[in-house]
Amino acid sequence: MSMIDCSVILVWCILLALSTTIDGAQVGICYGTIASNLPPPPTVVSVLQSNAIGAVRIFKPDPEVLQSFSGTWIKLMVGVPNEVLPLLAQNPINYSSQWLQDNIFAYIPPTQIKYIAVGNEIFIKDPYYTPFLIPSIKILNQALISLNLDQIIKLSSPQAACVLTKSFPPSNGTFNPELLPHMNSLLKFLYETDSPFMVNVYPFLSYLNNPRDIGLDYALFSTLNVMMDNGLYYNNLFDATLDSFVAAMERAGFGGVRLVVSETGWPTAGSKAAGTENARVYNENVVRRAIGNVGTPKRPGVGMEVYLFDLFDEDQKIGEEFEKHFGVFGISGDKVYDVCFT
């Protein structure tokens, strides 16, 4: 794509904005594909549309998946796989422009892409790619600017909650000092481009790793106890975790950067505390808070986009058994448990 018709982009933006506007923050879902028995992408799109899900995160730019979403009112967060980053970082801008065209825009109008997620949890889980992350983001942004798409598509990089070395109480939120130079560069870019800091938040994992200090009811929004921190009151781990990130960003000098929860969820099987009822309670509370613009104690009334993990169970994922059981929907398209996205 050497040139994009600005009038076409404007029309698409207006139509998509009208078709996806809701009172509260956007609630989407992650579409993981590490599975052997998933329905075909067109069927998946039908499931999403019938459940009024207007935002989806896909982890890599699969042509068949992108084509299936093309022309719908569903907006996408498209992932750039970690292993692609060295190629983007070490080549001139025209390489990134062509990569975007060949892998994304050839299959779906750019106005359906809301975010490009550059890598996933690189600092913690894939540190080999750390030196390539910021250069990749910057050169992709230059490519978007050259295509007049930088105000339509925002770039970020989802981070695991464990990039924080301190998270309790929330006001003590602090980034890992070893990661701080990279984190500061990322936050500076996000601040300058009005892009969100993306976090993957799993109170289930926090409870599983520390059940002595974290109550299940606190992780599931069900506690009657309230923790006070600097005059703010917390009755759930989700809010406390997000405000730990807010405090860490403030401590780093970038308190104005907004948050997007790029992944959160609760498994239905495979471990202690997993189960359909707990998954329903957790996800329903997350959704209600998002669409109600509840915000967090540090940012009350500020709507926050959330992407639930996962659309379907992924039976080929490696790791702990519970990793395979986050699906909100069965492969038939029916909900495993009731959760409403609007």
Automatic annotation (TrEMBL):
GO terms for molecular function: hydrolase activity, hydrolyzing O-glycosyl compounds. Transmembrane segments: none annotated. Gene3D superfamilies: Glycosidases. Keywords: Glycosidase, Hydrolase, Signal. Residues 1-24 form the signal peptide. GO terms for biological process: carbohydrate metabolic process. It comes from the Eukaryota. Belongs to the glycosyl hydrolase 17 family. This is Glucan endo-1,3-beta-D-glucosidase. It comes from Saponaria officinalis (Common soapwort). The lineage of its organism: Eukaryota, Viridiplantae, Streptophyta, Embryophyta, Tracheophyta.
